[in-house]
Write a structure and sequence with these properties.
2 copies of one chain form a homodimer.
Chain A (H helix, E strand, L loop, with lengths): L3 E3 L3 H9 L7 E5 L1 H6 L1 H4 L9 E3 L9 H13 L7 E6 L1 H13 L5 E6 L2 H7 L7 E3 L2 E5 L7 E4 L9 H18 L1 H9 L7 H21 L14 H13 L6 H20 L3 H14 L9 H10 L8 E8 L2 E8 L1 H12 L2
Parallel strand pairs in A: 1-8, 2-3, 2-4, 4-5, 5-8
Antiparallel strand pairs in A: 6-7, 9-10
């Protein structure tokens, strides 16, 4: 956690962190939307405009071609091994920038300034970097911790509600892994009314849950797989959408992924079915309805290819109850298809 | 050193190492020449032909485009996170394969089977991976240790003398860093008459020198820079050749790089000029004459861009005497140009 800074003065913090870097060593990466909405708040932090690279918008920006363009940008400007790349934006920017930095001259440092709720509670913390490749999510990437992560909920003020929902799904996941109390707070909150100031302590709690897990298992050989809860199905939903040319918000995919995997948890570990019901009401109440981009059979095939699967069957993290998770449950087709049917007929 | 296996039965060793991997998880990477000369010796090691990727020949194979093709190959064959990539070949193969493996699904394991003298004493050991990018050597890469390195000098039997020379330059460098005794053995040996069996103990000693340095500083923040001896100039010679479309053997570049940096060592640290003379006779006696691909001024500009330079001037490792190195010597233009003139007029 010592590399994560919670602040309500992001520009001042960033400026302080950049003091140790020569001006010509300071580079930034952002996307067009963040450049418009958030960059003005950081313009005084000490990064010259000509060393700011603006990526393409959205998931299409999460490609190896984009990474190559970032490397070209750095090479053309003579970026040295002790340069720093400041990634300002959502998860796409921190994932792509983190990956680009980790391979440029075999690794330059980076600082993440996540500006979406999703990136604040998830993507910018934990050191996973990567890009999509040939229709597969995060197929190419590295484990590379950012030097610092600067979290300021003021950036969430301009965030569309759709994007708050994306982060909220990861917060729900963290709460499910943490315990009943944390979960109840989140289920009761009214996300559309929350101010940045109200979100700050919830973001901090969510980040802490993740950070503790990651510190115990940075390269995901064991307990970190708990963080995959909801994501085995979630990633399949996203990959299917990607392949079908549809746009899916990561959070929507995770929200329905959580439901499918809670369904499996009820069946395999006796998770409370009434709590699943309450959870399902919350999800269907605030998220758009689930529109399948592929059949349950096709989704199952995608999961088999997912990187977390190292034996026969598909590897899930499941829950006995909030706060009680079990990693490495290998489920077969007969167990998985009903869970996918369940979310189809909510 | 515990991950380096010296053997005269490479196929048997490799087969033993692969036992823990399911057959569908075993992949290999090699180049056309190695596939012809060395693969037959390893064909019984348990890797199916359809999971062997043959790269393009030479330095053109050391590109990000080649890495993308390797990722496609792995993705198409459903390679999982616990797959292993066996890199069989020279430094290009172990550098490219090591890089591809370190980013595929955020890192799969690899085993290196270096088949050239250069790769055996240098490239395959130490965990540096990478590709050239926009005319710059090893601009993109990672630090990623192979799970194992299998070294068998039998592969050197079919190696052209030109390529033995490449490895010999790195052995000379290691000897210069180690001490007078080790250096004298190498200066006296007749490389063109050496058999694989005679080379084995010399290779082992050379690898040990490197391994000790790397273990003390895997990510090159300090003492590992000693291994850059000869390479600051050497890389500039190579980059200049690359940019001019000429083929330079890495070893030739290093050999003349060693001479230039010994010249600097004489000037700055009182290295014995008679030993420089003896060294120069050996180099000019067995290596092709130095043919500049760029002027000293242009080479100096290339060095300034080199990734090891973090202050004003160019960072060199220099020697007081064999075995006594000094890292982080920043030299300026007026000091460097005479060293480049020196190798031009040998």
């Amino acid at each position: 956690m010592e590399n994560i800074i919670f602040t309500s003065h992001a520009a001042k913090e960033l400026s302080r962190l950049l003091e140790r870097y020569a001006p010509q060593d300071r580079f930034a990466l952002t996307d067009p939307n963040t450049f418009r909405e958030c960059w003005p708040l950081l313009a005084g932090a000490g990064i010259a405009g000509e060393r700011v690279f603006v990526t393409e918008e959205g998931e299409t920006g999460k490609s190896i071609e984009q990474v190559v363009r970032i490397w070209e940008f750095l090479t053309e400007r003579g970026a040295r091994r002790n340069a720093v790349l400041v990634n300002i934006g959502g998860g796409v920017v921190t994932d792509v920038g983190g990956f680009a930095a980790s391979c440029y001259k075999r690794g330059i440092r980076c600082i993440n300034v996540p500006t979406t709720l999703l990136a604040q509670v998830d993507a910018s913390v934990g050191g996973k970097t990567g890009v999509n490749f040939r229709g597969l999510k995060n197929e190419i990437g590295t484990f590379a911790l950012p030097e610092k992560v600067v979290i300021d909920t003021v950036f969430l003020k301009t965030l569309p509600f759709r994007q708050l929902l994306s982060g909220y799904a990861e917060m729900l996941k963290h709460a499910l892994l943490s315990g009943r109390e944390c979960l109840d707070t989140l289920l009761k909150m009214e996300l559309h009314k929350a101010t940045p100031r109200q979100l700050a302590p919830l973001v901090r709690e969510s980040v802490q849950i993740k950070a503790v897990v990651v510190e115990n298992d940075p390269e995901e050989h064991g307990v970190r797989r708990a963080l995959n809860f909801g994501h085995t199905v979630g990633h399949a939903l996203e990959s299917a959408a990607l392949a079908a040319g549809k746009v899916w918000y990561h959070g929507d995919a995770v929200a329905y992924g959580l439901l499918a995997e809670l369904f499996l948890s009820v069946r395999k570990w006796g998770f409370d079915p009434l709590l699943l019901e309450e959870f399902a009401r919350k999800i269907t109440g605030i998220y758009p309805p689930y529109e399948p981009a592929a059949t349950p059979e096709a989704l199952y095939a995608l999961m088999l290819h997912d990187k977390k699967n190292e034996q026969e069957g598909v590897n899930f993290t499941l829950l006995r109850a909030p706060g009680e998770f079990v990693i490495d449950n290998y489920c077969n087709r007969e167990e998985i298809l009903p869970a996918l049917e369940y979310i189809t007929h909510l």
